[in-house]
Give the backbone structure.
Amino acid sequence: MDRHRIARAGLAAGLVTCACLSPGLNARAADTSDVKTLQQELAVTQDELAKTKSELQETKDTLNALKQRVETLAAAAPAGPGLAPGTTARLAPVNADNPAISFVVDTTARSNTHGDGGSPLEGGNGFALRSGELFISAPIDPFLRGYATINGNTTQGFDIEEAAVVTTALPWNLTVKGGRYFADVGRLSHWHDEALPFVDRPPSLDRIIGGESRAEGIEVSWLAPTEQFIQITGGIYNSIGQQVGTELTNTFGVGSYSELTYLVHPTTYIDLTDTLNVEVGGTYFGVPKDHDRNLYGVDVTFRHQPGTSGFYQGTTLGIEWLWNNERFANQKPLFTASGAPLLTDPALPFDPETNPQVFGSRLNKVQGGYAYFESFFGRRFSAGLRVDYSEAPADIVNTSLLFIAPLSPNPEQIRTYSMFVTWMPSEFHRLRLQLDQIVARGQPDDQRITLQWTAFLGSHSHGFTTR
Amino acid sequence: MALRRVSATLAVLLLAIALPASAALRVVATFPDLADMTRQIGGERVDVVTIAEGNQDPHKVPVKPSFVTKLNRADAVVVMGLGLEHAFLPPLLEVARNAKIAPGESGYIDASLYVTPLEVPTSQNRTQGELHPLGNPHFNLDPVQGKLMARAIAEGLERVDPDGAQTYQNGLARYTALLDGKIAEWAKLAAPLRGVRAVSYHPDLIYLAERYGIELIGTIETKPGVPATPAHLEELIDAMKQHKTQLVVREVAYELPLAQTVAERTGARVVTISTLTGGLPGTDTYVDFVDANLRALVGALSTAGSP
């Protein structure tokens, strides 16, 4: 901006104004040359004013453009602190050297009518660390993630429950899992204890599969590329759960491929309404050699998820049934309470190295399953009922209890009726009370009450599986 | 011959499965707010499905297998961000087998990208409740933040579908202009809220309160995500009386009776709002959602009694 030009323009404008406003003065200086001079001055001043106006407009435009640019730049820069240019998402910082770690403290206090040894199922009065579970997980590289579960408890000490790697970037909707993990059997067999909706695993799963479906092997899972959820899992393992004879096999797998355990587990899911859905799965696993084992299972889960803020928050109804045909070979002999061999059948073969008498080989057919429902109330409460029926060969089941049982063709049957109430003071803290009525043929009924107190240290989630 | 026919039929079936049903960009939005904005910006170029319902507690969205198939086939997932989806999205993405929408990948569109987070915890201590480490994720209640959300969504769509850049830019310009107009209207509408003292059920009002000058006195929850204890409620009621608190804001995903009890004890009025689009009747769009919330809050100041 030219200050002199503005001053001159101002002076001229002042003169013109004075000239216009003061007719008397104008009259007194009314000679022609003065008028001409003033007219010229006026024209120059008008020019100057026009130029100044134009320059002012230019300056205004420039200022506006600059203002707009500043606004654009300010808006373009990520507003939050610490976001590098090119960042497309705000993600929690992850240290590649530190995997996600959590620990579960799962304790129980229990009492039952007949104490330890007097119950067809696990009994005894007192306290127990049911599970102290260390869970570690992390992405390994762009193609693989890994996780491990190390579990310790009052009765069995520490053990690596799971140590597995899972692919994350295979084509054709495939994932492959390897290592030791809970095989994809049925619904609740591959859930960790602390994720179950009850204090204990359903007795039918414990007695037929042998607790969790723990396995070492390889598992391939395929998700159908359709709108309908269809997933098929297939796997090959040394064994699944506490398969009979597992303890007698070599520590490094089995003798031949036909002695491995093969699994297939298709599952699908249907939204019946906006708030009601059903999930259906079928399981088969078996050992081909001599048909040593063939297990068939079906599981159905209905969920009512109204997504409401009312007191009632939803219900889950779960049913699972298993049929197990399993050959018992080289089974250890049974003894009476006094230590005398229980088996006296001379037709049974002898094992010269270990025991004088063994069962030999026999195919046992058992079945069992459970049905339960759990309803959720007021954001932090749930309550439910469970009915369980299971069969197991009597002579196998009662070995540890020294229960004198003849080699009966009838399996031992146990029915369990349970009622459970859960309260979660927070997302990471849970108290559960469960009452069980245990009914076994030929034995007195047993009542059991268990209080479970579970806490989760760190970020704990077994992911989609335990939804 | 029969074998050939079977093979041909199978091939056709496989093709039918593999080929997309439409050429539109398949987008999964975690919340209805994001779905509405994505539709407004992308128009017919996007085919949007939503995971959560507007009346659901974002922390308790069920993990349904039907969401897995949607995510498996998606070209992009639009998330609110700041950890609001932590309870349901990570387990779904883990099994969705779709690497292009994994966090940090181009198909992962984070609506919080340009938002300046408030209440970023300085400590990750769980004695403070269930904190979101990246800050309070309920920024969508403030329509000015809504503009930033729209911008992040438009840029994300452009990143995934560069051919549609012009569509998304035009859509963003139109939507931003719409929001600008509404924001000016809402500023006048919400003027009576300035200086009003309120409590909410969950700490989700901070962005809205900062925008319209509401003074927040506390929450019915003891800590974020931790239910009210009797001792906490007594403290809250004392604080509300001391500060002459006018409103008890009950978010639609939380139960009404406790809010009513607190209001009755303090002489405050209960007002129900939603933290998500679609949470209240007639709020299918983000604009309707903001409008309904502000009208409810302002209305509660002039109407005696609870809703």
Remarks:
- Chain B touches chain A through 58 residues (CB under 8 Å).
- Residues 15-21 of chain B have pLDDT under 50 and may be disordered.
